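User: Some background: our group keeps a shared notebook of sequences we're curious about, and every so often someone picks one and asks for a predicted structure to add to the entry. Today it's my turn. The entry only has the sequence so far, pasted here. Could you supply the structure so I can complete it?
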Amino acid sequence: MTIEQVIAQTQGHLSKADTELIERAYAFAAKAHRGQKRITGEPYIEHPLQTAFILAQMGLDAKTIAAGLLHDVPEDSKYTLSDIKKNFGEDIAFLVDSVTKLNLIEYHGRTRYRESLKKMFLAMAKDVRVIFIKFADRLHNLRTLEYLPEDKRQKIANETMDIYVPIAGLLGIWHLKWQMEDLCFKYLHPTEYQELVQKYEVEKKLELNQYIEQMATTLSQVLTQLNIEHKITGRFKHLYSIWEKMHDKNRKFDEIYDVFALRVIVPDVDNCYRTLGAIHSLWRPNINRFKDYIALPKPNEYQSLHTTVFGPGGKATEFQIRTPEMHEQAQYGIAAHWSYKEYGSKRPTPKVGWIQEILNAQKNSPDTQTFIQQLRLDIFSDRLFVLSPKGDVYELPVGATPIDFAYAVHTDVGNKAKGVLINNKISRLDEPLHNNDLVEIIIDKQQTGPDPAWLKFVKTTKAKNAIRQYLKPSALNRFAALANPKHWWPRHHNPNQPPEKNKNLE
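Assistant: Of course. Here's the predicted structure to add to the notebook entry:
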């Protein structure tokens, strides 16, 4: 990696003064690390360069990239944080110092996971760019994990899966999340990883590429006739995601049908829906596999249209339709927003939920203490974060229950929820959850569906809709009696008195 390659990644969104700052930071880092080697045998400066390159790919600002180049200087050279502050100013020194402090967090397994998570969130709250640098640093370290002893490989991979991956998902930085997952998968489950590489990467992708090309050509011809500008690419599900689905659902590789999707990028929202219509006119849609994340974005503001159709040979094929701005948001989450904020892009700024509130609070607070107080009292007053046994972080509204959590994990988990362990203790399904609770849903595979009474206490729209959706198709069979008003009160009811409410219907 060279500094020229890093600079090349910034063209189009950084000024000449910005690139000069990055070049100065590189010269300082190269001098500080001169003569040092990494365990790979490469010059040490290779790691800061790779970190900066990842940050540049994310479209981040010059100070973040410069801090990426300098992030190891105080720890691994004779130069101090004061030297960085003197040469590059307070902002960059703060970023470097924050990354250095994050490096001090010791990982002691999942039992200490929540404390590490709190510290990561605190760093993010002060300046979210600290997390970007740390993620880039971690990603490059994962790429060179093979040079470390086995015990260190296992520790770093487990730490990444327990802490970094969930936060990357929460922030919507899918591009980094998927890479980190696959790299950890390689070392945590080497046999399964190699089997999937052979079966999927070597054998299956050639066949799928031909199929994707056929579908893309057909759709492209129709979109051209409709005068819709477009770019169509194939998106393959990453290895860890395939393995996870095989493992969790006890399926063989050939039973996982959604291992790929065609992604269609069009100029604006109107053309997203026009493209959806074109796809449905070409191939029969699976009505149970349609999601409109444009009208109803995910909590991290992911937006896209998802539809699955039956393509040639009846093969189930997923399409994802989005605008360029949606695609950038899908790849880099909050990081994409940061670049918009920094450079005043004319493109629409995507909403980013509670992260946007963090940035607004940070901008408007006179000092850190005020900001943290505002963060604690205002921003998180209506939401909480809970953990799954796998270490995934779920955002829920205050007052949410284990049933809300179950549906946040997966609709099937919600429908079959029988009990719950909160912090390893048996609890009620209507028990309100609290920040940092560890929640494990106990499911009953024989259970036919949700309890209508759950509608009394669930808080999230997803849980309510899922329960109602399940009850709706078979309402005539299972709740026919409820359709007749005479069943709304007990048999001994006096018709001259007002009927009592049936509590089961509240």
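Suggested note for the entry: Confidence is low (pLDDT under 50) at residues 338-353, 371-380, 475-496, 498-506. The two ends are 64 Å apart (CA to CA).
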